[in-house]
Amino acid sequence: MEANVMPNDHKDQEEYILLDLDSVSGQLDIPPSAKYVLTGLDTLNPVLIIDDKLKLVGEYGETIGTCIVFTEEDSPVVHEEAGPSEANLFSGTKIIDSSQPPKKQVKPVCQLHKVLKFRISPDSEIQGVTTEQPK
């Protein structure tokens, strides 16, 4: 009797997490080029420090249903010469149409299972932003 045994392959599986800054985006202006440090991803409350001034505390939440992340790329409009013809010297050739604006192509990147929602840390010292809780 022969057993069909599959090798036990323990590859690291990638897990994608959405960083949700919606609750703090109206309170502060985070420049796109801001430096940041994200620590404690394996804890219940990861910390995000932006530009060495702003401290945000995160809390995990599960996604509801299927959550898929997409990327968008510009793609030139391409025409392919087709059909047999004595006059068609470029049969099978692809020609980029520069008179057409590029098309947007959307491709799936990954599926999410968790969302990490951030709030301003009570002990964060932010210039020009009040973090006091209403009394």
Topology:
Layout lengths: L16 E4 L1 H4 L10 E4 L7 E4 L3 E22 L2 E3 L13 E3 L6 E18 L15
Parallel strand pairs: 1-7
Antiparallel strand pairs: 2-3, 3-4, 4-7, 5-6
Structural notes for this entry:
One of its GO terms (cellular component) is transcription factor TFIIIC complex. It holds the Pfam family TFIIIC_sub6. The chain has 135 residues and is mostly beta strands. The chain has one domain (17-120): Immunoglobulin-like (Sandwich). It is 3% helix and 43% strand. The chain is built from 1 helix and 7 strands, in the order βαββββββ. The strands form 2 sheets. It has a 5-stranded mixed β-sheet. Strand 2 and strand 3 form a beta hairpin. It is elongated. The model is unreliable at 1-8 and 126-135 (pLDDT under 50).
**Biggest pleated sheet:** 5 strands, mixed
CATH topology tier name? Immunoglobulin-like
Share of β-strand residues: 35-45%
What strand line-up does the widest sheet have?
1-7-4-3-2
Can you tell me the residue ranges where pLDDT is under 50 for at least 5 consecutive residues?
1-8, 126-135
The top-level CATH class is Mainly Beta
Mean pLDDT: 75
The 3D shape can be described as elongated
State the end-to-end distance.
Answer: 75 Å
Q: What is the alpha-carbon Rg in Å?
A: 25 Å
Number of domains: 1
- Please count the helical segments: 1
Number of strands: 7
InterPro entries: GTF3C6-like (IPR042771), TFIIIC_triple_barrel (IPR019481)
Domain Transcription factor TFIIIC triple barrel: 13-119
Organism: Senna tora
GO cellular component, one term: transcription factor TFIIIC complex
